[in-house]
Amino acid sequence: MPHPLIPRRELDFLLHDWLRIGDLPAVAEHGRETVDAILDLSEQVAADHFLPHYKDADMHEPRLETDGVHVLPAIGMALREYAALGLFSAGFAPELGGLGLPYIVCSASFAQFAAANIATAAYPMLTVANARLIATFGTAVQIDAFARPQIAGRWFGTMCLSEPQAGSGLADVRTRAERDGEDALGVRYRLTGNKMWISGGDHDVSENIVHLVLAKVPGPDGALPEGTEGLSLFIVPKLLPDGARNDVQVAGLNHKMGYRGTVNCLLNLGEGGGAVGWMVGDPGQGLRQMFLMMNEARIGVGIGAAALAYRGYRHSVAYARERLQGRPIGERAGPPIAIAEHPDVQRMLLAQKAYAEGALALCLYCAMLVDRHGDAPSTALLGLLTPVAKTWPSEWGLAANDLAIQVHGGYGYTRDFDVEQLYRDNRLNAIHEGTTGIQALDLLGRKLLRDSAGWAELRCRIGLTVAAAAKDVTLAPFAVTLAQMWENIALTLERLRAVKQPESAFDNATPFLSAFGHAVIAWLWLDMALVQAEDLALTAAKRRTCRHFFDHEVPKIAAWLTPVDTRGSESKVSAGTFD
Questions:
Q1: Fewest C-beta atoms under 10 Å: which of 139, 266, 442, 481?
Q2: How many helices (H) and strands (E) does the chain have?
């Protein structure tokens, strides 16, 4: 294969044959020619500028020196090419210097860069989300000063939420913001505190770095407000408008298992009197504003996980076709055969295909929902599926990468082959932007037990798929299975809504998310199997993979629902259990 990125025919199938994105007004405005040109460009740039330094960036981690953090020069070269071709700005409106491309097209483009080099691709993912937040909630002056340079790819951006003592518990944030006057950029503050796990927190790649920082403004008594309601959002640039260095210092670098080309920092704010920052919007609105960036990042994480799984799958297929070992069962003579002919290897390849292609389908489906932002049912469904889009690719993309190592045998466990690095890179995705457990609480608590709009829309769309599949003699049995499976999930939700102690409904939220995610992917696989593409071989492969998913993966759903349905005092675990 010329490169291990996502095959173009796969993206064409998902975008044009299955999702029919030409029906989206934003896509119709540009035309398929523009979409295809962007996909062609993305594949070429990813293969030529991101892929070549994939292993070098893993071996040569960022280093902290007296003048700041330095990264592998090839990372900067790749990102300058990315910026020069307008890929930072592609998804922004023309009045902001962008091309106005739909989110789904930008997502498909990003998938190629994530497949080529997830660590380098993380910089534009964060920068674009940062700029979009400022463009949405900032003043015109703030947009000109801080969003436009990021849209042009000259400045990069970060999101600064976690702290050493808080982690994902944002109610416990202790970074303090003291008012320090007002200027053309808005109400000015001085920030003091520490921010942990800041990707892209410092480097020598861009002209400036724009930090979006969650902090709390003290009350009249000097005390910080409790809870997340007291969080406000601040723009804190590395370099101030006059060119002076802001009071933001790198206290240390985190040395990670994967994603090593992405700088990850502990930042100290205010060691010299207070880092200068400007509030975005009103006090106390920080977390609500940040959810725009967080949700975009969650879909981005899902796309990255799917892309890593897909690349691992492609490496596995190529290796299994070339590696000669063993003979068919029952034969003792004759030459060795390619391991791709062994049933167990075929099983592992098919599982990887089901995970990788299912994950990518889920993320692009959600990206399409983003582009239907004026449609209330689509918006509700997007809110419901976002925790699934972040989690399912992260968990099962990693499972695909695990199988990729297994297919390679002992060679897969060595650094001579890419699959071990793909596994290490993907291991992060179930952790950052909200762990699997946090996403499970979000899905069950905010999305299903409180709000029924997204659930109703999901059931409606599943019903349409079931009705269509019931008319196909090959797919009809899967339609029956899918309908029954979702009825079982509905019954589980009814039981959870009826519990006398509401907090106990969340005891097994993560197994519920596993079941729900697998059920969503089963729906999407059946929906894709209904498509009759011009590429008959691809259509047949989709149907075969759909069958695999229903035969091998769907039965797991009942097992995950069991502890959810049978929760009780006997399921409680005491601290002494772990002694």
A1: 139
A2: 19, 10
Q: Are 428 and 258 in contact (CB under 8 A)?
A: yes
Question: Is 433 tagged catalytic?
Answer: yes
Catalytic residue among 163, 433, 457, 553: 433
| 568: pLDDT strictly greater than 60 | no
The CA–CA distances, whole Å, from 467 to 200, 414, 477, 480, 527 equal: 48, 48, 12, 10, 11
Residue 178, phi then psi, degrees to nearest 5 = -105, 130
Query: pLDDT digit string (tens) for 413-439?
Result: 999 999 999 999 999 999 999 999 999
Q: In DSSP terms, which residues pair with 233 in a beta bridge?
A: 214
Tokens of 423: 């596994």
Q: From the CB of residue 66, how many other CB atoms can be counted at a distance below 10 Å? A: 4
Kindly state the helix (H) or strand (E) to which residue 267 belongs, with its residue range: strand 264-269
Amino acid at 43: E
pLDDT tens per residue, range 453-466: 999 999 999 999 99
pLDDT, tens only, 29-47: 999 999 999 999 999 999 9
Crossing angle for the helix pair 286-322 and 103-116, to the nearest 10 degrees: 50
For 281, counting Cβ atoms within 10 Å of its Cβ (0-12 exposed, 13-18 middle, 19+ buried), the class is middle
* 497-538 per-position pLDDT tens digit: 988 788 888 999 999 999 999 999 999 999 999 999 999 999
Q: Is the pLDDT of residue 569 over 70?
A: no
Threshold 0.90, pTM exceeds: yes
**Per-residue b or e along 186-209, where b marks 16 or more CB atoms closer than 10 Å to that residue's CB:** bbbbbbbbbbbbbbbbbbebbebb
Angle of CA points 188, 190, 193, to nearest 5° = 140
Map tokens 């063993």 to a residue: 326
Tally of CB atoms within 10 A around 498 = 9
For residue 214, which of 184, 170, 178, 255 has the smallest C-alpha distance?
170
**Radius of gyration for the chain, computed over Cα atoms and rounded to the nearest angstrom:** 24
